[in-house]
Amino acid sequence: MLSTLHHPPRRLSRFFPANNKPRHFHTKPVLSSSQPVTDQSPSSTSPPESQILSIRHSLLSREVTATQLAETYLSRLKLAEPQLKSFIHVSNNVLKEAQSIDDKIKRNENVGPLAGVLVGVKDNICTVDMPSTAGSRVLENYRPPFDATAVKKVKEFDGIVVGKTNLDEFGMGSTTESSSFQVTANPWDISRVPGGSSGGSAAAVSARQCVVSLGSDTGGSVRQPASFCGVVGLKPTYGRVSRYGLIAYASSLDVIGCFGSSVADTGILLSAISGHDRLDATSSKQVRVLQISVSQEVPDFTSQLISAALLESKPLKGLKVGVIRETLENGVDSGVKSTVLGAVSHLEELGCTLSEVSLPSFSLGLPAYYILASSESSSNLSRYDGVRYGNQAAAEDLNALYGDSRAKGFGSEVKMRILMGTYALSAGYYDAYYKRAQQVRTLIQKSFKTALDENDILISPAAPSAAYKIGEKKNDPLAMYSGDIMTVNVNLAGLPALVLPCGFVEGGPIGLPVGLQMIGAAFDEGKLLKVGHIFEQTLQGCRFVPPLIADGIPQ
Amino acid sequence: MGLPGALPVVNSKVVEFAVKLGLALNCKLSFYSKFDRKQYFYPDLPKGYQISQFDIPIATGGYLDVDLPVEFGGGHRRFGITRVHMEEDAGKLLHADDGEYSQEITFPIMLHWFSALLTLLYALQVDLNRAGVPLLEIVSEPDMRTGIEAAEYAAELQRLVRYLGVSNGNMQEGSLRCDVNVSIRPVGQSKFGTKVEIKNLNSFSSINRAIDFEIARQALLYSQGKADQIVQETRLWEEGSQKTVTMRKKEGLADYRYFPEPDLPEVILNKEYVDSIQSSLPELPEMKRRRYEEMGLSMQDVLFLANDINVARFFDATIEKGADVKLAANWIMGDIAAYMKNEKLTINEIKLSAAELAELIASIKGATISGKIGKEILFELMAKGGTVKGIIIEKDLIVDPSEIEKMVDKVLSENPKQLEQYRGGKTKLQGNENIERQGKSRAAEQDPFREIKCEKLNVLLPPADMEAGTPQSRKVMVIADPTRESAGALQYALSHVLLEEDELVLLHVDTPNSWKNPFITFLRKPSNSQYTTPASLSSSSEGAAAPGGEDFLEEMKQACEVAKPKLRVHVEKVHTESGNKAAIILSQSTAHGVDLLIIGQRRSLSNAILGYRRAGGSLRGSKGVDTAEYLIQNSKCNCVGVQRKGQNAGYLLNTKTYRNFWLLA
């Protein structure tokens, strides 16, 4: 079974331009959960380290103030923004909030774990003091009266919401091109899409416009842009993070996810926002007790992360990794395939036991996903009638008001999905579409369960290709939809998945990043983060800093 | 409001209430049920869908037992329950009349919603305060055949939810709402006809009347060969015109595009939870009624006592303290109920405790105090509280029986004439009152006085049939006149009210002017020819044609003998010059100790059914209506106004609590 995986090609260095030739460092800076790290000698090729932990250390050791940090990020944000357009709205209160953290530190008060950390928030996540448009004209200038639970938690932990990031309208898209307001560019090549729908959040983290960001993942909207932008993206288990305040696209699939430039940051952000919420009936009370975490509480995912310095020769010895065969078959870009196979052999070097796993229902996931997601969205979006909030068309009577507000408010992609979903739910078609899609969903859940009973994690590419050109797939929705093939099954099964950059393919000025997807059992994010961290810390010869800001970035 | 990002959460209370109600309605519970979204676009629905339960409701397949009130023929009915499910309420559309807005904006967040609509729709507002509030929907089987049955079913549901503490069941506030579906079919056909939904039913009486109107409307179309004009539609009950009017016609079935609600998890019940609710259920109205019935109370008493859970609790507590069942029922239904009504208080608000009522009853029974003094004490207790013993001592109300005996002897000896009359068998004659009135001393008001008096009278001259009768028999009085209305009243009494062991008093009040008014001419109209059955009744009304002739009384009596041979029938004639017929009837009914008073009521079919507004005195013959209305409102016993509707169309009944109930023949 393993024969197909033996000795995959590892000719990655050819993708690296000479001026950015990576140097190998075998001794890595210490990353510890209990104590912030001191990064004495940053190196351009050192593995990614936790920005959150280093910020914390710098602040507490009074090396730098939160205000200084915020100013640095804001100036970089403003510098990159004309090209990237990753933000729909930038907060006016960043410096004020940074100042209050500095005041706290000055008074020797305790500060939260996200103190001074600038967090980008996808614009379909409600924030009380900023617009929340979900990228749609229908909600232009809409300011919610409440914070989403995830945002509330970020603020409680002293994180600073830097702004609202761009997205495909209501999360419907894979390129961020269907935003009603702007098209976001990929920091690795500004002629390319950042992926979507959380393209703004991914691009912002990639371009270091913020430290970490929140996105949402309905069918891959965190993982695919993470892959396109070369950042770490985590889609948690359905129910791990409260959806309260997430503007719904497809309620049974939507989850709020995290972006970071390292696995550690992603894990810290997840720790901050997870947990049961009485305002979301589908948020889980279940706590998978991990080896180190305290029971009764959401596990502290970062405690699972092992310092790179402690890496032995085979730190993942005995970990059973299943490679999903269907994800490396036809339709996958050959460069992506070889990069992922390279990552597979890296895992093998780390001691993992590899096997090939077949999920026969895998290809059924895509049509099932589009039927279920469209059906739910047709229902979820019926509240946007222009009456109580949002943009309202001038009209003579109520029906015209409804019709015109929706006709003018929604973009074409959204309209198409509402039509598809309404059709699929209609009497006479329900059994043929919605019901069958639900049956497929059950099959997929079962096949994942079986595969994960036999393996600790499953791996696949995060997307069948690297970032493509802006406009390339705009008029071919089926091509764009098929790009979600790697990710939608995970949403249908409700499982957690981590995407992290594992290499490059040719394209753009210095190559384009490729993401590796690791899928875990429900509520097993801890294991994914641990494996991801070790993988990231031991991956050699790759530095995932985009050329846009490659010079002068403080590591 | 359906704000972006907001999520629904199930109120655990609604699940508890649904389980309670499901169990109380003898339903099968779904241990696994789920919520679904029902999609439709309407201004009262801010999210564009309603969270409901579609294919797996929490409870299915139960039934509800109802005892119909005696005045509507009585009887026990069982109505099937199809399902009970949980859902969220929609907003409330306020249709303002004449373009005026009701200013009931109470929720600041909604101002935006209102202002948006105000600029657009000049007669429509939406109150979203109740949108999203959980509610339970109960769907019954099509088991009701008349408006009364449906109204009584609804009333029983109200009692049930009040007993269970699930809702206050207030229809005016919208805590209990009712939509009905009406269809008719020819006798013998098993398939139901086209159903018509009726909305805007705000009271039990409008449920009853709307259904009966709708039956009549559909039956008329049917009989005219226009059955195809009965279409599936939603009609609105208009209280003003007493009609149903088309609200919206349904073109085929609405497609609600149901699908499972992804924002809410399934509702999973476990056996322990259900068992704990089952064991916490209170005694339900039906169980209470059966228990009261077994205690020997009449159905009338049973229905009254079990109607309100607080009254029932009070009654239960009273008899628990050892009070006589029948006496306790009488006190509660009589003076206490009257007091509560006058003072607009509930039984929990009056200061009288069940223990004190029991004490009071015991004191009267034990002859410590008289009934009359007891009444005084009762009002004192209801208004101010305190104890029976305390009040007796405070007011020095106990007297020496031997003193009273002397007094009775004295009165008797001073009133030989009355004594003579009493000897003649007039046990209820006014003389008794005279005797009492003459003994106006403090002691004379005491009940022991009456007892001693009666004792003396009985020993000396036992009258023929004093206070005879089995406990279960009732005394019914029908007001007899030579009119169609009166004949109808008697017919109703014979067919729906009287049992063989009952006693009937036919009371005729002869007022001088009553024979000179248009009633007489009316009677001579050919419309009388519709009286065909029973034969004796029709002849009785014909025979009454002669002014002052009282042959009709004999005819009526004969009709009774034909219909119910064992029935005891008395004829009572009272002549009055004053013309105050109603007052005479009242005093006569009291004097006879009548349980139920029945009087013919005059109003034409067209008035009641076709929706002419009741125009009070402007109606011809309103005097007849007034007498009946007056009696219905003021009679101490239950009074039923009867109006026969055509040959086989049953009766339209009025009582103090029910208006225009159409009892089908």
TrEMBL record, chain A:
Low complexity: bias regions: 32-51
Pfam families according to UniProt: Amidase
Disordered: annotated segments: 1-51
Protein name: Glutamyl-tRNA(Gln) amidotransferase subunit A, chloroplastic/mitochondrial
Assembly and interaction partners: Subunit of the heterotrimeric GatCAB amidotransferase (AdT) complex, composed of A, B and C subunits.
Catalytic residues, chain numbering: K122 (charge relay system), S197 (charge relay system), S221 (acyl-ester intermediate)
Amidase domain ranges (all copies): 69-529
Record family assignment: Belongs to the amidase family. GatA subfamily.
UniProtKB/TrEMBL annotation, chain B:
Record organism: Citrus sinensis
Protein name in the entry: Glutamyl-tRNA(Gln) amidotransferase subunit B
Recorded superkingdom: Eukaryota
